[in-house]
Amino acid sequence: MTRHVAVIGAGSSGLACIKCCLDEGLEPVCFESSDDIGGLWRFKENPESDRASIYHSVIINTSKEMMCFSDFPIPAHFPNFMHNSYIMDYFNMYADHFQLRQYINFQTRVLSVKPRPDFSCSGQWDVETESRDGKRESHVFDAIMVCVGHHCHPRLPLSDFPGIETFKGKYFHSRDYKTPDKWRGKRAVVIGIGNSGGDIAVELSRVTKQCFLSTRRGAWVLNRVGDNGMPLDMVFTRVTRLFQRILPYEFFCGIVEKRLNQRFNHALYGLQPRHRFYSQHPTLNDELPNRILSGTVLVKPNVKEFRGSSVVFDNGSVEHDIDLVVFATGYSFSFPFLPSHVLSVSDNKTSLYKYVYPPGLEHPTLAIIGLIQPLGAIMPISEMQARWATRVFKGLNKLPSMSVMMNDIKCKEEEMAKRYVTSKRHTIQVDYVPYMDELAEQIGVQPKFLSLLLRDPGLWLRTAFGPCTPYQFRLFGPGQWEGARQAIYTQWKRVEQPMKTRPIPPKETRCTYSTYLLSLSAATALMLAVILNRENSQEYLQYPKMLLDKLKSHLPA
Fold first, then answer.
1. d(CA 402, CA 460)
2. N or C: which end of the chain has fewer CB within 10 A?
3. 222 contacts: CB under 8 Å, gap ≥ 6
4. CA-CA distance, 99 to 93, in Å (whole number)?
5. How do residues 409-420 score in pLDDT, each as one tens digit?
6. What does the alpha-carbon distance between residue 67 and residue 94 come to, in Å, rounded to a whole number?
7. Rounded to the nearest 5°, which phi and psi values hold at 50?
8. How much is the mean pLDDT over the chain?
């Protein structure tokens, strides 16, 4: 039976892997090339060359209730969208609570991971590492969990920009951007309108004389703040997913695009792309429309060429005296320590069963964790992958035949090619709710909605119609957590608490027609459950009032 597991990387995915190994009685040994945990989210002014890096002001794009590990809620007083320093605080709390640090070898690089000569029988791996002082060691492990992420290698396509060698200013990849201070009063161009490109353009525009944002395709821009001031990603519910599945693709995209254009007209602002909303990973930026409206950010088409300190764009316009160009052109991923016959990467693509397992191995003892670009939070997804992988290592879950795995990989590739515009960015895309459910099914931890409806209608309402928070996947099956129900019941309180810094007296509101209809529907479902399960009827009958109070706070008077 698998016992010793090597975990490569101590970022968010690596921490989850260590904890999941311990939960399953495995013995993890984590190798981390830097001197601390956190991976991408640990800000460093001068990061190591082979490490992911962020700028000082980075705020995460997923809210705390959607991004937390499933059995460790983020503190209620933490902001909903956290600065990277808060994320590091959370990771440190998680590592300390579950005593994970003792399993991490810091400042230790993994040089190679190779199948042992007897791999066909043992499924074991030879691992060579190098410590900070240059000492090399060889290890034997029963399984490997690779958690190096996909933001390590900046993609800087200089060959696509003729004349860049003549540029007289300074240029670099967004990975090397840290703060805007030194560019005060300068003229800057940011190339790329992903999340980093939008953030950097907004931040530079506060101090530069002029900032230009160059985009080849344009983008649909989302706001972190949703209806009634709630976090936007709390709309990731199974109801939303159901509508997405049953409504025609073009129609559903049209609904979303209309809502986005009601906030600001994307065509008027020069941002509207030709593709539909769900055909590209969206850009989240609360300030970009204001910056465009105030003229501090000017949207430009793709850069055609450089001429000294001038930048020529595809529409023929020219901007002179440019001091800085930031290439927010994404990243590529690779696994240099793995042999190509084990896992190969070509054009930012690799073949993994459900984005975790190489399908050609005789033994499923290698798992790639966190190599996904989700429309949603990555932390709970990595945790779910780790929960599945550790059970496969122990033999508690089995993988299907290679032909079944290859067919699954092919279907996902075809679906991705059909939905997304062609881009190296769109090779590892997943949607949060369906992918979490897909992994949960492998483990046996998906919510049992009929059982909840009959035994606990209040919890059923919150899981079926509320945000798909990670706690839902701790209600049933392996790894069940006794605090999951309470975490779901109190999730909205944790959303609201950091904003209640100035008490406001409640005001009376009259019951509206929409409130009446929704509460009537809820009451009908609850009464059905009460009839079928009378033992807890008193508790259940108290819930409609609670629901009505919640609805009143979110619906118009």
1. 37
2. N
3. 232, 260, 282, 283, 284, 285
4. 10
5. 999 999 988 988
6. 13
7. -100, 20
8. 91
Residues contacting 166, CB < 8 A, separation 6+: 306, 307, 308
Q: At what angle do helices 513-532 and 543-554 cross, to 10 degrees?
A: 160
Q: Distance between CA 377 and CA 318 in Å, rounded?
A: 39
- Residue 540 predicted with pLDDT over 60: no
What are residue 313's DSSP bridge partners? Answer: 303
Strands 297-300 and 429-431: unpaired
Cα 91 → chain centroid: 15
Count Cβ neighbours within 10 Å for each residue of 419-448 and write b for 16 or more, e otherwise: bbeeeebbbbbbbbbebbbbbbebbebbbe
- Please name every residue paired with 108 in a beta bridge, in sequence order, or none if there are none: 131
Residue in 158, 159, 195, 185 with CA at minimum distance from that of residue 173: 158
Residue that is written with structure tokens 């928070």 in the block? 469
pLDDT at 422 over 90: no
pLDDT of residue 2: 61
Query: What is the DSSP track for 196-247?
Result: HHHHHHHHHHTTSSEEEEE-SS---EE-SB-GGG-BGGGG--HHHHHHHHHS
CA distance 215 to 365: 42
For residue 92, is pLDDT > 50?
yes
Asked if 30 and 105 touch (Cβ cutoff 8 Å), the reply is yes
* Closest to 514 measured CA to CA, from 506, 522, 505: 522
Residue 229 φ/ψ region, left for φ over 0, alpha for ψ in the -120 to 50 degree band, beta for the rest: left
Dihedral sign computed on CA atoms, order 446, 449, 452, 458: positive
CB count within 10 Å of CB 330 equals 22
Tell me the backbone φ, ψ of residue 285, rounded to 5 degrees: -160, 115
Distance CA 375, CA 364 (A): 27
Starting at the edge strand found earlier in the chain, the sheet holding 324-327 runs 170-173, 324-327, 187-191, 210-214, 297-300
CA distance 475 to 316: 59
Give yes or no for a contact between 345 and 361, defined as CB atoms under 8 angstroms apart.
no
Q: Are strands 221-222 and 283-284 parallel, antiparallel or unpaired?
A: parallel
CA distance 299 to 290: 13
Which tokens in the block code for residue 231? 């976090």
Residue 46 has pLDDT above 80, yes or no: yes
Judged by DSSP in three states, 428 sits in: coil
SS3 label, residue 327: strand
Residue 305 pLDDT: 97
pLDDT tier for residue 187 given thresholds of 50, 70 and 90: very high
Question: Is there a contact between 333 and 371 (Cβ–Cβ < 8 Å)?
Answer: yes
Strand 104-105 and strand 27-31: pairing? parallel
